[in-house]
Write a structure and sequence with these properties.
mainly beta, single chain, 70 residues, 0% helix, 4 strands, two-stranded antiparallel sheet
C-alpha cells in the first residue's frame, strides 16, 4: 500500500487532505509561548521574561536560572 498523502502532485499541492488548525489546539488566547533558549512551547505561567540581546524575551522555568537569594 503506497502512502501518497505526502507527495507533491502535478498542481503543486503536497497534501490531498489535511487537518486544519494549529498543532497547539483551539487555544486562541496565546496561553503558550516559545522559549527563547530551548525553543519548546511552554505555558506562559511556567516561565519568566528575561532580558536577552537587549529585549525582554520569554524563558521557560526549566531554562531560567533561579535568582540568587541574599
Amino acid at each position: 500500500m503506497s502512502d501518497d498523502s505526502n507527495t507533491i502532485s502535478s498542481d503543486g499541492l503536497r497534501y490531498k487532505a489535511r487537518v486544519s488548525g494549529s498543532p497547539f489546539g483551539q487555544t486562541g488566547n496565546n496561553s503558550t509561548m516559545s522559549c527563547a533558549r530551548c525553543g519548546v512551547h511552554k505555558p506562559r505561567a511556567l516561565g519568566v521574561y528575561r532580558k536577552l540581546a537587549g529585549k525582554n524575551m520569554f524563558v521557560c522555568g526549566d531554562c531560567a536560572a533561579p535568582k540568587p537569594t541574599a
